[in-house]
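Intended use. Records like the one below are meant for learning the mapping from a protein sequence to its folded structure. Do not use them to infer anything beyond what is encoded.
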Amino acid sequence: MVIRKKRKGRAVLCVPAEGGAYFAEAAGEVIGREAFFAGGDPAALVARAVREGFRGPRLFLALTLPGLRVEARRFPDMTEEELGETLRWEQDRLFRSAEPLAMDWKAIAHSPEGWETCATACEEEAFGRWADGARAAGWRVARAAPLLPSEGEQVVFVGRKECLMLARSGGLAKRRFRAGEEESALPLLTGEETPLAAVPMADCGREDWAACLAAGLPFPPYEEALRGAALRLLRPPLLDLSRPADRDRPFFCRENRTLRLAQGACAVLLLALVGCTAGYLYEERALAAEETRAAALTDAWRSLSAARKARAAAAAARREGRAFVAGDPAWDHRLLSLAESLPPGVAV
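Structure written out for the chain above:
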């Protein structure tokens, strides 16, 4: 029984096989449900996986397709950019195919004497059917790995007619032999016993696998071999033939640097716009509140203004009176003289 511990990094693993494909659901390093679907059309197989409840959209595809080529070459010392250009020019000589090929390469060792490289390729049409089928189902082939051996390991790719054995110890060594040959054809690495993994190719059916087991080759049962090939997809691949647009990428890398910088600038502008809008709305509400408060204080302001005018008028009258008294100290005597000189009955 498998217990799922986390959902981060969810992916669906797919191993093409004779007459169908093996699918397994993985979350991080944990394998969940698995199933074998019969059929020959990759688009129909992926669509059925979707209908059966497998959850993408990331599909890890094992490149066990017929016509898979793996080559190890040594090149003289040069820069890594020159090495990449050389390998692109040498593609036809490496793989010798009239069909368009999807290719990837990697330098696995470097010394003053030169480069040890590994290159793999498969027919673009065969791989394209899987990539396009995944796209049609709303998924993407985020990893298309040829399941090459790790350091100190050897892997046997079992096809219907012949087997390809790869071993990695510093560089990459390979050997081909016919399917069903005896076990003595297997050892490739010398010295201590090395881990051996067997991977069925897409044209290798259960009968072909049984013939290898009958010949004494130390392979696991067919279903277990398919499961083991799916588990190898969880390792970081040495080579990857998936399309660049479908691959998993870090949030910031050289390929998307311009896009991320533009997104950052847009985010800064958006934050500035949000800040300006919030400031404008705040000031507008503050102005409306002040206008409401001013309207409520209009009557009080009018009363206060009238009182101030009255006080000013009274103060002006008092100043006028004091100025009159100061200008004529004998004003009261003249007022009495005026009263005495007036006819009777006239009041002053």
